[in-house]
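Lab notebook, bench 4. We co-purified these components, and the gel suggests they stay together. Before we commit to crystallization screens, I want a quick structural picture of the whole thing.
Request: model the full complex, all chains together.
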Amino acid sequence: MTDSQTQAAWHETVLAGLKANDVKLTVYVPDRVLTPLIAALHADPFFTCFACTREEEALGIVAGAWMGGMRGAVLMQTSGFATIPNALASLVVPSQIPALVFVSERGTLGEFNLGQAMVLKTMRPVLDALAVDHHTITRQDELGFILDRSIKQAVAIQAPVVFILSPLLTGGKVFKA
Amino acid sequence: MTHAHNAKVMNRFELTKRLVGQLKHEEAVIGGIGNSNFDLWSAGQRPQNFYMLGSMGLAIPIALGTAIAQPKRHVVALEGDGSLLMQLGCLSTVAARAPKNLTIVVWDNGIYQITGGQPTASASTADLVAIARASGIANSNWAADEDEFERLFAAALKEGGPSLIAARIDDKPGVGATDRDPVQIRERFMRGLGVRK
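Here is the predicted assembly.
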């Protein structure tokens, strides 16, 4: 049996980390790479999981839920990140809301869509400019630890955190040349 | 059915006072950016009010999130026409989730009042109630006048939602201005909702 067969799949670890930290609300704008995670969240009655129309809308929903006492995460692909800097800078960060943001990292390691690649170049600089914590997760054996500790930290210090899920973790989306 | 062009032009602060006067069960109210939350602030500061200072267009998504987190509490979103036009997709999300405890109020003056009165599409061609109905919020109505606004809002609180009430309003600016302290606003709101002690 190989290591990959003995380990949980990355999306199973994410789901377990959310559940262990009582993150019940998951709102997403879809992404091919995130599909197994989204399917698992829909299938588990612990979670309230649904799609919305735009990534900043998802951040608004999760912000409202946090203020109402429910923890939430938003899921998006890299290009969707470009729609949320205003919601981060004018709502989530100044209001000190621990929104959990999962971004499927597109635009690197074999990307075929120039639009994704260009947005990726802006993503970490924008997060750094806003002093928003972000972790690029490349390894399954580190995923659970990073998630669990970072969710707890986000809640404790009342600040958002972004998890960038690398193709090294998820396999990414492959262009058949 | 009242159509937009038949609805009386009313005043946002006057209607906001009437709306707040009907809140008897610690309902949450999310005031959208600018005049919507300025008039909510000026109508009497309640711990269950959230005044959205930035993030134009997100009052309804915030209200939806609060309504999901607290299904036993009614949640009201106050949003302007320009803000709603910026985030129309949220109406279809609300319709798909169909929260019974959510009411959306739209103040439609047909202008971006706070930035100098530039016209919005609702001044000429877009009917926001028709858009809401087509998005799946069947219980969406223009308020013909102040009395009907009060009746529609009372029914929304009593009968359950989601529902949307649109009011044509004049071009008056908001009365007063909200204290601009996002952390204090958020913390007070969470205490008002019983989330924080």
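The radius of gyration of chain B is 15 Å. Worth comparing against the SEC data before the next meeting. Chain B has one domain: 4-192.
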